[in-house]
Each structure stands twice: as structure tokens, then as C-alpha cells.
Amino acid sequence: MRSTLGPGEAAQEVASREPRRRVDGRLIVLLVVVALYSRGTLTGSLNPVALRTWTTVFVAIVVQALPFLVLGVLVSGAITALVSPAVLARLLPKSPVLAVPSAALAGAALPGCECASVPIAGRLCARGVQPAAALAFMLAAPAVNPVVLVATAVAFPGQPQMVAARFCGSLLTSVTVGLLWSRVGDQRLVERARRRVAGAGDGARWLAFSSAARHDLWDAGGWLVVGAAAAATLQVLVPRSLVLAVADHPGLAALALGGLAVGLAICSEADAFVAASLREFSLAARLVFLVVGPAVDVKLIAMQSGVFGRRFAARFAPLAFAVAVGWALVVGRVLL
Amino acid sequence: VSEEQTGSLLLVVLGATVVWLWWSGQALNYVRPGLVTWLGVGGVVVGLLGLLPPLGLLAKHPPNADPGGHHQHRGRVGWLLLVPVLVVLLVQPAALGSYAVASRTVVPGGGDGEYPPLNAPVRGAVPMSMAEFVTRAVRDPDQSLTGVRVRLTGFVAPSERGDGDGGYRLTRFVIFCCAADAEALQAVVRGDRTPRARDQWLEVEGTWVPRPAALDDPIPPPPVLTADLVRPVAPPRPPYEYSAMFTG
After folding, report:
1. Residue B237 near residue B25 (C-beta atoms within 8 A)
2. Are the C-beta atoms of A198 and A211 separated by less than 8 Å?
3. ipTM of this predicted complex?
4. Count of alpha carbons within 13 Å of A215, Cβ hemisphere only?
5. Quick check: B225 and B187 in contact, CB under 8 A?
6. Helices (H) and strands (E) in chain A, counts
7. Which of B18, B78, B102 sits opposite A66 (nearest CB)?
8. For residue A28, which residues of chain B lie inside 8 Å, CB to CB?
């Protein structure tokens, strides 16, 4: 099933791509100088007023994600420079049935936002970890880590079953998606991530580190901007009252909150507080919000298309959404 | 100038912008204070990644001349990192205001514990956060606010249907992580004869209009305050509150 694209071929493939138009550094300098000179000139003159909210929310999402993204690219640089594929292969079991749950549980140890786990998962794939395991890690890391679970406990005082339900729902989702991907997923779709290690040579560790970190910051960061713009647009254009309208219908409510989680793109450390305030909805519907959010949202879809390619994201996001909603409903019925 | 160097330059500019957000305190318009330090650290790291050799701006040899083939393919999407830089510099987006309130109004749930005693009055009124005022007013079965003169700080948002004649809603946003997850805490203000401009920050002193606690209502209307002293104030720093929950 797994492709055997060697490093040499990969390098060739990269080199043979058509050259793209270059962006001149002077253009950036000019833009920034002009911007500095006319600093704040647009403040207060932005109309319609919705645009003002948009700029605040857009900058907020980018700024909030940046420290986590930086953590993610530093780890992915370190993986590239310090951990050889052989060591990674020894660390993880061969069979996906064992490797996927171990990777998902390993995700519990990384206290970060989802923005950190996407580039790390890309590098893990690039270093030869089975895609299924890397994807399970990517889904689990933002959802089941201790910081997120504590935040959930604080947001739902006196309802510890919510913490347990969130942990189970998210863990089951990441393991299921990982296993499904190892069976039916198109492994070639992850090759984009694997191709990128072409240049990382041995020996020059600092070069390998900075090259990987810079590259991931560039790709994931650019797509983060796309995702933040999409999320800010949805926040401004789609009134929450639209979602609240279906609160009384159990099936629709679960789907609506799943959709809201995708559109809002809230950091997984904060989503429990928003879920706590959605008091119109049943606990089970709010669990859907908590399980879907860290797995699929517009910001993540954008970053995944940057790291794994657009075709990957187009298949992975619906799969993860369906599995997350399904498990959240099942776990909600059992535990809540 | 090679494309690699241009990319490095953009990383340096991005890092510098982020460090400026941290240094100037503007970052508080977007994220909670606990994240601000990490934002500064993140900005420094981004800047260093753009500066340090062998790939950054300080490299002696342009990296494209590197025969080792370490240059990786550069996606075009990364240039979008310039967008937040330009938005921050040109627009300098302010903290969320009254236009962002739409259907974000929230009434915190009641805790199951006892409500702690009120703070001591300062200059004739008990200063409290909007979270405390709204929670006590709507959820406290013992109605601890009855007859108490309180002092609240918030900005003016228009009143909504069912709020009664005139008046406005004194509003404060509460954020948990960043402004994308903001929710509005609101109190209806009555008895202020002066017309107030939207988004004007006010310090309001007055007393709560008692109403039985809404223990089971998931979305009760916001509490009402009869104002007897209203003073325009400068926007507070930080502009948000950070917890909607008042009791545990």
C-alpha cells in the first residue's frame, strides 16, 4: 500500500516543477514602509462596521495561534534534525492496530492548540511514521491533553462526566479515523508531506532544523491566514441566532453545533467555555461541539491543505467530521 | 535578491510586528493576558528564524547558491503572512465593540456553591465586574444585590426589544482565549437622562432592580440597573473580562 518514493526521486520531482514567478523583496519593503508611514490611517474609517469586527477577529485568531504554531514548527524542526526515521520506526509498533492508539495516546502529552499538531503530524509522516498513526496523533493532541481537560472541568463545574465524555469521544474519534485511513485512505495523498524531506541531509543538524522549521512556518502560517480569514468571515456573516433556532430538535441541534464548531475555529483550550454558555442546547449536543472542534474546523482544514495538500483535506475533513459527530452522539448517550 | 531572502525578510517583519503588539500592549485587544508573553516569545523566534544563518538574512552566502540542495520548494501561500502584518499596521483593529454584540449575549450559569460576601464599598458603591453583577442578579437565590449601590464599567450598546423605554445596555466582553471566542455580558441601564454614544465607555453607579432568581432558565433576560451617577471614562486596560463564572 505504501509508496516507495525514494529521496532521490523526490528531489527530482521537486526540481522538475515549473518555476514560479518570484516575489521581489523590494515589494515587501515598499509595502511595509508605506504601511508604517500611514500607520493607523484606516482606523475608524472602516465601513461597513462589520469589517471592523472582522479585522479584530481575524487578527485575534492569527495572533492567538502564533505561539502554538511556533511551538509546532520548533518541534517539527527538532524531529527532522534529531530523530532519525529508524528511531521513530522502533518507537511505534508496526501494525496499525497498535500504532494508531499509541500515537493517539502520545498526543495527550502535548499541551497545545491544534495549530501546533498539524505541522508536527506532517513531519512525522515525512520521517516515515505511518500516515494513519500521524493522523491519529494530529486529531488527539489538541483534544485530549491535560490543559484542555482541565479547562473543560472548569467550564462545566459539577459535571465531571463532561470531561470523561470529551476525553472518550475525542480519543475514539482519532483512533477510528486513523484506522479507517489505514484501511481505505489513499496513502498517496500523504506523499506530499513525505516529499518535503528531500533536502534534509544528515550531518548538518542546524541546517536541517532551521530549514524544516522555516518551511513549516511558511506553509502552515500562510494557510493559517487563510483559515483565520474564513473563520472571521463566518463569524461576522452568520448570525448565531441561526444556530440557536434549531436548539430544540435533538438531531439538528447536534449537526448545527458540529457546523458551528467548524465555522468558529475556536482554540481547543477555549471551546469548553463557549460550549458551557450554549445553554439552549442539551449536554449531548454540546459534546458534539467539543469533539468536532479540535478535529475539524476551517482553520485546520486550511492548514492541513497546506501540509498535506488540498486533495487530502477535501477527503479527510468530511471523514473526521462524520466520525466525530458519530462518536460524540454515542458517547453522549452512554455517559451524559 | 533571492526569493529565499525575501521570505526571510517577511519572517523578520512578521516577528517584529508581533513583538510590537506585545511591547505596546495592543495584543490585549486580541488575546488574554496569559498568552501575551508567549506571543512575545513567538515573535522573537519567528524573527530569529528569518535572521539566523545559514538560511536567514544574516547568512554570508545566499542560500540559493547552496549546492547541497537544501533549498526546499517554497509554496506561494506563505506570502499571505504579509496580510495580518498590513492589517495590524494600517487598521490597528480595536478591541471588540458594540457591533460585535449581535447574539453573543450570555448570562452565566449559577454555581452550586455559596455566594461569597460582597466587597466593601469604595466611595459609596461596591465596585464589581460585570460577571459578578450579572451572575448575582440573575442566579443568586438570596438576592445579595438587593439595595446595594454598585459601580460597573462597560461600554454602551443599544438596547434590544423588551428592555423597556430608552436606556442602553452597559456591556463588557469576556474572552477565554482570544477575541474569536468573546461573549457579551450586559446590563440594561435605566434612569440616565443624557443620551450616550454607542461604544462610549462609562462608569455607572446605581442599584439593581430586583427580580426573582432565574435558577432554571437557560437564557434569562439581562439584569436591569437604575443608574444615579454616570461618568464617561477612558477605555480600561485590559478591555475585556476573562471569566464569565463568578462562583465555583
Report:
1. yes
2. no
3. 0.92
4. 25
5. yes
6. 17, 0
7. B18
8. 6, 9-10, 13, 82
pLDDT tens per residue, range B201-243 = 999 999 999 988 877 787 888 999 999 999 999 999 999 999 8
Q: What does the angle CA B95 – CA B99 – CA B102 come to, to the nearest 5 degrees?
A: 115
Cell of A281: 442546547
Q: What is the pLDDT of residues A159-217, one digit of tens each?
A: 899 999 999 999 999 999 999 998 887 777 777 666 655 444 455 788 888 888 998 89
- Least CB-CB distance to B99: which of A29, A35, A52? A52
Q: What part of A 61-90 touches B (C-beta under 8 Å)?
A: 61-64, 66-67, 69-71, 73-74
Contact assignment for B180 to A232 by CB distance below 8 Å: yes
- The answer to whether the CB of A265 falls within 8 A of the CB of B181 is no
Choose from B8, B61, B64, B176 for mutation: most chain A CBs within 10 A: B176
Q: Among candidates B104, B126, B139, which has minimal Cα distance to B247?
A: B139
pLDDT score recorded for residue B140:
87
pLDDT (mean) for B71-83? 77
Predicted confidence at residue A256, as pLDDT, reads: 92
A205 touches chain B (CB under 8 A): no
Q: Is B227 helix (H, G, I), strand (E, B) or coil?
A: strand
A202 near B CB under 8 A: no
